[in-house]
Amino acid sequence: MMNKGYAGQILWVDLTKRTFHPEKIKDEIYEQYLSGYGLAAKFIFERQKPGLSAFHPDNILAMMSGLLTNSRAIFNGRWMLAGKSPLTGTWGDANCGGDLAPAFKESGFDGIFFTGRSDKPVYLLIDGDKRELRDAGDLWGKQDAVETENILRARHGDDFRVACIGSGGENLALIAGVVNAKGRLAARSGLGALMGSKNLKAVCLRGDHIVRSHDAATVWQHTTKFLTGLETSLNDFGKSMKQGGTAATLTDSTQSGDSPIGNWLGVGKTDFPPDMANKINGFSVTKYETRKYHCYGCPFGCGGLCLVPGEPLLKETHRPEYETLCGFGAQLLVDNVETVFMVNELLNRAGIDTISCATTLNWAFEAFEKGVLTVKDTDGLELTWGNHRAVVAMVKKIATGEGIGAILKDGVMRSAEHFGDSERAVPMHVHGQELPMHDSRNPGGGLDLGVGYETEPTPGRHTSTFAGWDQYEKPDRPKNKLFDKFRLKSRYEKPVDDDHEQQGVRLRGNSCSEDIINGAGLCNFGFYFGPVLPLVEWLNATTGWNRSFDDYLTIGQRIKTVRHAFNIREGIDVANLRMPERARGNPPLSHGPNAYSANVLQWDEAKKDYYRAMGWDEATAVPLRETLRTLDLPEVEKALYGS
Fold it and tell me: 258 and 159, same structural domain?
């Protein structure tokens, strides 16, 4: 029984040999990498051979809890997948809420690492100290993710926690994720396909191991202080999230320019005005809510379980999140809320990323409009903007891999390559990963987002940067004054910080603080509601360490650098990963909040500022030798520079 917040060991599962190997981890490894995808990055980088094909059995799939999971901190219910992304060939990771996170440590491990490939479909069952791989033949190809969880919990006990793949992972769809809690997905990077390639249908976990904090009383003291502040100083963003979850931001985001419209060609104010946006926003979806949904460790409950009358599949369904409502609603000019509910449920059951799927469909609709696709290609469907019936039909094809869905299930880059015209209809991705529903051209923070889209080791991710890191640099600030979606700037003020050194510091802080959050297993939203989340205090009291925020930022830099170095070792030209010119504002939109000169956002200069601040070569983005030595990364130095 550990008293430092972590279990102190990981479990290796060899699916080929059907063996289990617990591995003890030294304390200093946690001090360098925390847990979560930090720990995964170290072991995958050091144990996995470079250059393996997407579905090679030796590719490692990691499922991880965070350092603060099972502590008396809150917002600590995130678990992570990590491995080489089948979608991009880069480092891949995906983050998820739900109820799975605590089950890892209760099973005695900080994470589970899968190698090899089973010769037949199996699921991992851990019940206390009993571990076995069980036949999943009755589940594979027959049960979606919701049905699979229901069956496994009925079979083994309702207190088991389950994560599984649906048809997406089974069909090796490159935009497949892994499903927990019947509708929470570790969705990005296509890691559900990696799980499917291993013939691993599910993990089913229950345990009674206890992982204790170094000073649980102090952790709880900081938690209660934060909760008191949350009651007295909840900001407007928090109040809206409390009522409608991320869906509450939909109308404001479409009108402010945060939401891309019509495959990034439209403008919300004219193409999807408030009278349309309001039909699918938080208030419209919440009217179907039957009860609030809380992820593990969350006092807030921004999720919701809903019932849509007349739809048997929607008798209990998760409320769609902002990304789904924007991608299948605002972006496709669909204002039918029941359509978005149906699409959300279909993709949750199939275990497919709604962001990647929506971005792929946006390309398909533009391609149809411009004649790249015809009704012969689309199995007779008219892909006209706003055609909500066609949207549902296309999603069903992607979920099953039938017809044109057999192509679209592998994402927008491969879809555009298949049909051979990426100029008339532009596939919106970075190195194969579809762009999310936050516009990099937007004056309210688009520059930092866009730099993140192009420099993050899992490219094209909107959750790769944390804009509020400087609250920990200035602890005397009375309140968290983070970016608030309800008060976006309406005018573009400054394209780039005149002080390039300071801009680099900001971009480094945005980037590396996210690695701290993911190493800790925390939810980003906890940082946005008003009072400052006691991140440093929680980490120190849980582990017994005495670290400053700058110390933790260095840990974040170490984690980021290992993930980044993984891509370099895989032969990827990291310095030249780029968004489509459309996402860079070239050519610029003619009107709306994001319309300004194409060269205003000085992307490449900003990226150089970031590379310098990270200690990477500003031309090649390769970490400098002295940086690797400062970060104590001899294995990375050897991989990048030789002995």
Answer: no
